[in-house]
Amino acid sequence: MNQTDKMEVIIVGAGPSGLTCAYALAKRGIEVVVIERGEYPGAKNVFGGIFFSSIMEKLFPDFLDNAPWERYVGKRKFALLANENEMAFDLTPAAFNVAPYNHSFLARRGSMDQWLAKKAEEAGASIITNYCVRDFLYENGKVVGITSGGDEDSLLADVIVCAEGANSLLSEKARLRKKISPGRRSIAVKENIRLPRSVIEDRFGLTDRQGAAYEYFGASVQGLLGNGFIYTNQDSLSVGVGFSLSDFMKSENAKNPNDILDDFKSHPVIAPLVRGGETTEYMAHMIPSDGFDYLPKLYRDGLLVVGDAAGLLNTSFFHEGVNLAMSSGLSAAETIIEAKEKNDFTAEALSQYEEKLKASFVMQDLKNCKNFLSFLHKHKSLINDYPTLMNDILVDYFRVSEKPKSVVKKEIFNRVMKNVKLTRVASDMWGAWSNLI
Amino acid sequence: MKTGKLSLDDKLFLVKTKKDAASHIKINKKVCKHCEHKMCLVVCPAKTYEEKSGAIEASYENCLECGSCRVVCTDGAIVWENPRGGFGVTFING
Q1: pTM
Q2: Cβ(A202)–Cβ(A188) below 8 Å
Q3: Nearest CA to CA, how far is B34 from chain A (Å)?
Q4: A133-145, pLDDT tens digit by residue?
Q5: Which of B71, B80, B87 to substitute to test the interface with A, most A CBs within 10 Å?
Q6: Are the beta carbons of B42 and A281 separated by less than 8 Å?
Q7: In whole angstroms, what separates CA A260 from the centre of its chain?
Q8: pLDDT tens digit sequence for A2-51
Q9: So what's the pLDDT on residue A1?
Q10: Strand partners, A80
């Protein structure tokens, strides 16, 4: 590369949002280059494990047959862990166990992002790897290029798309946001744990390419706002924990994330599921939790920001990220195509991007779950005290003894009255219904 | 093959990394002196940060590039940049 090189579009980051944007632009004959700092697309990328594929399937009908997904999510579990107990809600719907499998697939980002990168390249996009973009180049306040920091190592473009992920340094440098604060991010660590395929299938009750996605709240993350998870690949498990950085900072006895993961793995409920497995990799990544009210500015003259870098992640129970990222990549591409027709890449022309996001499920879902995290921050009893109490109640209720059931019920009633105020429960439950669901 | 409990060092040994000669993490140690929480010491999943005779130091070679240290460094002492292109971690199962 040298300074005189100019492209129509530069995309920084080869993840789902950047590659989708590149594919859509290349498909329309636009000259686009994706710049990736890793050795290959996906080399720096980490997610929990569920690839939400609705956009992917629309773009690539051969996804189901050819994409390198590991298993479809046929079984889901939402569990509350107490110190030694589990209380769980299991879901194995017949409707999610036939194609298109509720558009939910367990996958590894390395292989999936490379598959998507190949699609973008086949459509005509270029991908440069091993190149780290340090900053944008500006001309009269307009973003006109990127640089790796060296004087001669830069590239110009009509418009640039920032798709650099959750740890977005460039969006700060471009003043699209202030420095990312602890309330706007979660930290997650995970291990890839190898186990024979037959063991995984027997242990989780799976057949063929069916997979399981188990999420654990409460004691899984030492009562922090977050959760532990186990996702089944074909011959390995993704096992990890993730939690809010601001909650972590408030916690008095904060432990290292790796220690929290180790504790999760040795919890009496989890240990039998990972038993005998061989850890082959340890990974860490941040998760955006910007939320609707605190999103960065999504555009300025010559620049758009997409995917995790833009904080476009559903922070509620759904944990959807990939599909929002891909959708934002498509909206950015459509905006650029329209801007190109008028040869106008000003902030005003690019503001159409935000309008498109608002008209799609991306912003509508973010708006819908905008109070989710703040509500839980304020009502942590919902993830800690209530589950423990509920667990204790159920244990007492089902305990076999010669004590008459009428006495047991009375004891439970007294215990509930002693521990909680019913008016408080009613208001918490109403709050949960309006803010969480 | 090791199937028992792995230490953090064991886990970090599994991560494919290309080490650069220079650190991608700079620390303004004067600012650290006034930091009340020093959360970088706790939050880093690779325990990159250590306090040595009152000063915070980073073993950047172990960095997993999550960036959480920079986010919890509310006083802005940690100046964290990505490693140079092609350097740092390469995840296989991300």
Answers
A1: 0.94
A2: no
A3: 17
A4: 999 999 999 999 9
A5: B71
A6: no
A7: 19
A8: 556 899 999 999 999 999 999 999 999 999 999 999 999 999 999 998 99
A9: 53
A10: A87, A217
All residues of chain B having their beta carbon less than 8 Å from the beta carbon of residue A44 are 65, 88-91, 94
pLDDT of residue B49: 97
**Set of chain B residues whose Cβ sits within 8 Å of the Cβ of A38:** 86, 90
* Each residue's pLDDT tens digit, A307-354: 999 999 998 877 889 999 999 999 999 999 999 999 999 999 999 999
Distance CA A292, CA A368 (A): 9
**Is the CB of residue A182 less than 8 Å from the CB of residue A324?**
no
As a three-state string, the secondary structure of chain A is CCCCCEEEEEEECCCHHHHHHHHHHHHCCCCEEEECCCCCCCCCCCCCCEEECHHHHHHCCCHHHHCCCCEEEEEEEEEEECCCCEEEEEECCHHHHCCCHHHEEECCHHHHHHHHHHHHHHHCCEEECCCCCCEEEEECCEEEEEECCCCCCEEEEEEEEECCCCCCCHHHHCCCCCCCCHHHEEEEEEEEEECCHHHHHHHHCCCCCEEEEEEEEEHHHCCCCEEEEEEECCCEEEEEEEEEHHHHHHCCCCCCHHHHHHHHHHCCCCHHHHCCCEEEEEEEEEEECCCHHHCCCCEECCEEECHHHHCCCCCCCCCCCHHHHHHHHHHHHHHHHHHHHCCCCCHHHHCHHHHHHHHCHHHHHHHHCCCHHHHHHHCHHHCCHHHHHHHHHHHHHHCCCCCCHHHHHHHHHHHHHHHCCHHHHHHHHHHHHHHHC
Domain boundaries along the sequence of chain B: 22-79
pLDDT in tens, B23-65: 999 999 999 999 999 999 999 999 999 999 889 999 999 999 9
Residues of chain B whose beta carbon is less than 8 angstroms from a beta carbon of chain A are 1-3, 5-6, 8, 11-12, 14-15, 37, 39, 42-47, 64-68, 70-72, 74, 76, 80-86, 88-94
CATH 3.30.70.20 fits B22-79, yes or no: yes
